[in-house]
Amino acid sequence: MAATIERRSFLKASAAFAAGAAAGFSCIEIANAGPITVPTVDKLSLRVLIDSAHDQFLKSSTVQGVLHQPPGNGRGQDYRRVLHNQWGLSLFAETQRGDEARTIFLDFGYSPEALINNIEILKVDPTKVNALIVSHGHHDHYGGLTGFLDRYRQDLAADVKLYAGGEDNFCHRVSPTAVKGQFTDFGQLDRRELAARQITTVLCETPTVVADHAFTTGQIKRSSIERILPNTFVERGIKDGLGCDASHYSAAELAGQILPDEHVHEHATCFNIKDKGLVVISSCGHVGIVNSVRQAQEVSGVEKVHAIVGGFHLGPAPKDYLTQIVAEIGKLKPDVVIPMHCSGLNFALEAQAQMPANVIVPTTGSRLTFGA
Fold first, then answer.
1. Do residues 254 and 43 make contact, with C-beta atoms less than 8 angstroms apart?
2. For all residues of the chain together, what is the average pLDDT?
3. Which of 24, 158, 215, 315 has an alpha carbon within 20 to 30 A of 198's alpha carbon?
4. Which residue in 224, 307, 204, 310 sits closest to 264, CA to CA?
5. Cβ atoms of residues 213 and 104 within 8 Å
6. Residue 184: phi, psi to the nearest 5?
7. What stretches in the chain show pLDDT beneath 50?
8. Under CATH, what is the fold of the domain 2-371?
9. How many angstroms separate the CA atoms of 236 and 249, rounded?
């Protein structure tokens, strides 16, 4: 079974590359399918650039060795401005290993206006960015990307790359309405816009080291009790260079049918902190947060989980299912669990009930520090 999946992934990546070349794009690379050597870093700092809420009354705290510093009033030095919150997620990751520093930009929120506003207020430095990562093909994670590039591309390294989980990032997605069989548009990531801004996209369906300090999980195996909760539907195919290659899919998909999204392209971004263990960042966790962590453990060979961070897509979870999944997370023995975005208030409350000494609930503008 594993060999079949690996071969399907290889054919899928090859087809995607061929489709890109046929359409005149030189902006697609395929990540090396060989095993990776997982890097270790001394320190990781995560700045939450975009999340759904801001709480100016949060106090600094340290939980299981992880320092959480909220941004206070969220205005910086100008009372006329304030941090923008929106449905979506964006994280600015800075790492240190000895004298060596790296910066990785993970996801870009729903709109460039909010993202650029928060970058300016929080005074993060985009010129330091060594790599860009998009977790999956939902607008609330890539919506600010092209606007960010329009504002800062000239300040980034000429060879900076965008790491994406797979060709499906470029598929057209729609959201179901209250009327059965009817949908509203949810957009699609446009590779033509990336090419115009001289951004090379690396398709990482296999585990990939990023900027020498991080790694991605590659395609995440579905091995736990978790299930994909209802969300978007997907339409495959390429027209005038827009969309995703469908040549490796089923007849129904080739026919352009709109089908439930299985998120085969979603990947998690991970860091291995010296003497602490893994920090696993699941921006939305559609394929399951437990599955994501297990995948990180498998590809890295590191069992210890220091932190589970990000969106876990359990906001819409029924109570019994939520209780069960939080219990499964507890079995992973993380030092801290840090829910954001689509995790849901229900998740935060259940996690605090089951793991009262291990939960941090951050806010837009929070800084989280892992390691020395």
1. no
2. 90
3. 215
4. 204
5. yes
6. -115, 150
7. 1-26
8. Metallo-beta-lactamase; Chain A (3.60.15)
9. 9
